[in-house]
Amino acid sequence: MNLRMPERVRVDAVIQAAMDMEATPLLHALTPIGDDETPQALLAGTHKTQRYALGELDGKTVLVVTSGIGLANAASATARALTLVEAPIVIAAGTTGGLPRDISVGDIAAGTTAIYGQADATAFGYAMGQVPQMPVDYTSSDAAVARLAEYGVGVKVLTGDNEGVAAAVCRKVGIDPSGMLLGSEVDGLTDEELATRAEECQLFAKLSPLQKQHVVSVLREQGGHTVGFMGDGINDAAAMRASDCGISVDTAVDIAKESADIILLKKDLMVLGRGIMEGRRTYGNTIKYIKTTASSNFGNVFSVLVASAFLPFLPMTALQLLLLGVAYTVSCTAIPWDNVDEKFLREPKTWDAKSIVSFMLWLGPTSSVFDILTYAAMFFIICPMVVGAPFAHLTDPAQIALFAAVFQSGWFVESMWTQTFVLHMLRTEHVPFAGSRPAASLTVLTLAGVAVVTALPYVPGLGAALGLSPLPLPFFGLLFACMVLYLLLCGAVKALYARRYGTLL
């Protein structure tokens, strides 16, 4: 025997009020639908203390429910209403005992989370309003779906359930069920046809486990998408393994949890949104460090090669290079906690090793330009100023050693300044500090690193042990001018790079 629920009337909303005084204004404005001979008339009548009225209100078809006072009456009346009509929303209308200061009479307050306020199991370690063994609160799934869509994440439902049930659930959470594909249709499509249909289709119903796996594989391989699949049953295991990231919950069957890469401890789709954002933030800070460090190191290596070809001494000793690298690395330890631009978070990213090479080749030589200018200024101006003569006129080994030490100290300090401040320049497509602020920890650490490296040549005993020599005041005027020009050039190259490749990072 094929048992089917009677066809329900489609309405735009169910409006529930507890008392007659609350329902009366609605009923006065309601234009009734149907008469005593129509099925709709069944909705107009009395069920003990509960009354139902079907009609049009401001051009919308609504069912007005007068439930009686109390949570039990409201729940039972609303439940009965939803067996009579199909509605995408239920509105509670009535008076309120108080309002927060930021809400005025006439305002509409729409909640995204809900708790059962009368539950009190705090004696057993549960939160106030939490029903034992149930979530602390319930988050609106449609809000979660909308949130994911904002960040470029498409939500598709793959289910083995009946198409009618699946469509009703999808409509309630903001997923368009039109264009639904059934399992029987999936089997009749080639991979290319399925890939085309799957791009537009948001609901796949009456799927077998293998059909779920097939759809996921086609979306990955033919559609070129990064696919996450969330499931909790044995029928979902194959699809989870076929996806890029399998997701399950802690109450799922064992095989589903074993197939998952991520297990959610909270049954809330908003967790997925927050997880995706955290993943993008982690990726953004990782690629930020890799690209900026690769470009600055490439520039330094290139500068060393140029200097080695023309200088009669090493531009920097091995110990100084190692110390510089340690200081820069320590100052970068705050990058994992750095802020990431909203634009970057909203757009899905994929790993692209070639972009690291192009970034390095574009931005690396930029620093080398100013390294070479620093070489020239140090060799022809600063060092002769300290020693008292150009290098070509020196014969005293002590003077030659001092000349080299001053030169190496100048490039040691300049390298730390350029590496550090270009990090702030290249961490964002916006103007640094103004259009995009770094995390406070990153600002503090980088400034501390610059201060320590700048001070090292002046530390008695330690500076000499490292082969460094105090720098004269005119050097810092030169350094300031060099930094201004360097940041301006770097900003211009950054803009050209972003325009050429569509993104900086």
Write a brief caption for the model.
By secondary structure, the protein is of the alpha/beta class.
Report on this structure.
The protein folds into three domains: 9-96, Nucleoside phosphorylase domain (Rossmann fold, 3-Layer(aba) Sandwich), CATH 3.40.50.1580; 138-268, 3-Layer(aba) Sandwich (Rossmann fold); 273-501, Calcium-transporting ATPase, transmembrane domain, CATH 1.20.1110.10. It has helices at residues 20-29, 71-84, 141-150, 163-172, 183-187, 191-200, 209-221, 237-242, 254-259, 269-310, 318-331, 342-346, 353-387, 397-426, 440-455, 462-465, 473-501; strands spanning 9-10, 13-17, 31-32, 45-47, 50-57, 60-66, 85-86, 90-92, 113-114, 138-139, 157-158, 181-182, 203-205, 228-230, 245-249, 262-264. The model is unreliable at 1-5 and 36-46 (pLDDT under 50). By secondary structure, it is an alpha/beta fold. The strands form five sheets. Strands 2, 3, 4, 5, 6 and 8 form a six-stranded mixed beta sheet that branches. Strands 11-13-12 form a three-stranded parallel beta sheet. It has a three-stranded parallel beta sheet with strand order 14-15-16. The protein is elongated and about 110 Å long. The two termini are 62 Å apart. Helix 14 (397-426) runs parallel beside helix 17 (473-501). 51% of the residues lie in helices and 11% in strands. It contains 17 helices and 16 strands.
